[in-house]
Amino acid sequence: MDIFKLKGSPGLDKIKLIALDLDGTTLTRNGLTRRTKETLEEVIARGLDVVIATGRPYSALPEQVKAIKGLEYVIISNGAHIVRPLTGEFLYSNYADRDAILRVRDMLMEKAFPVEVFTEGRAYVDRELYEDVKKHGSSYLSAKYILRTREPVDGIYDFWLKHADSIENVNIQFEFQKDKAEMKAALEKAEGITLTSSTYHNLEVGGETTSKASALWQLCRMKGLTMENVMAFGDSPNDGTMIREAGIGVAMENATADILEDADITAPSNDDEGVAYTLRMLLLGGKDPFMQNFLTNG
Fold first, then answer.
1. Contact at 8 Å (CB) between 218 and 245?
2. Exposed e or buried b for every residue in 180-209, given b needs 16+ CB within 10 A?
3. Cα distances (Å, whole numbers) of residue 272 to 25, 27, 295
């Protein structure tokens, strides 16, 4: 089974920091596995930094992730903050410009798409949407995830206006791809924002200079490193900048086509624990009996 591909010879000797997307990358459909957690802790114990770089707000970070021994930094909301995982302390922030984000608000108020607003490490949705999903579920939204990680408010657009100076990210959900494509074309013309996506059904709006790569650059600067010292793992368009700018970019086998094209390495899928396998094969002496057995018998 050929699921581990390298383009050329990666500069492994320069790698000092491992940046990991969560959903579709580090987490399997069942969450953080014991093997992946132990692998990350072993990498940290050997003197490398491990940094989570996720589109999730702080409030949606799994407790399993916060409990990774030695994990010092998490990048949240697509680069809006660098935080301490256990305390939630913000070490760096990059909010969207007030005027730019309010122009996006005006555009979306004319539509009826589900909208989530991220501010100060938490994610909010309109109470009507929350209650509808709770009662009826959804054909394209994860009801369990919304109920577990989103806070309902009365009037999401009023809430958005009230917090316009501290918007980290706006997540827009689409049932139909035609609607997503039309909204994407409109938002691409808007000034002062970054537009990306992390799932088939969403678009995400952040600040003009907000990205996982920009937050990683800030963290590298804090630690006396450069992006050449980073190995970054991801699977979706919101991982694209850090995949391209890292010294070594790693795409999961389940990644979108653009991420697979940009990456230096293609790793096994998230559900096959590709992060653990890649780190063990490239940085921990190539010892992973479980994955060797998987490759032989898969």
1. no
2. beebeeebeeeeebbbbbbbebbbbbbbee
3. 10, 10, 10
Below-70 pLDDT ranges, the chain: 1-4, 8-10, 287-298
The pLDDT, as a whole number, for residue 5 is 73
Residue 250: DSSP 8-state = E
Distances (CA, A) of 281 to 193, 219, 297: 39, 26, 18
Closest CA to 20 of 65, 63, 58, 57: 65
* Residue 114 three-state SS: coil
Extended strands (E) in 90-239: 90-93, 115-119, 122-126, 150-153, 167-173, 193-196, 202-207, 230-234
DSSP state of 262: H
Longest dimension (CA), the chain: 57
Residue with the two structure tokens 């494509």:
181
Q: One-letter amino acid identity for 233?
A: F
pLDDT score recorded for residue 4: 66
**Residue 6: per-residue pLDDT:** 74
Cα separation, 107 vs 217, whole angstroms: 32
Give 124's strand partners: 117, 151
- Is residue 74 a contact partner of residue 85, using CB atoms and an 8 Å limit? yes
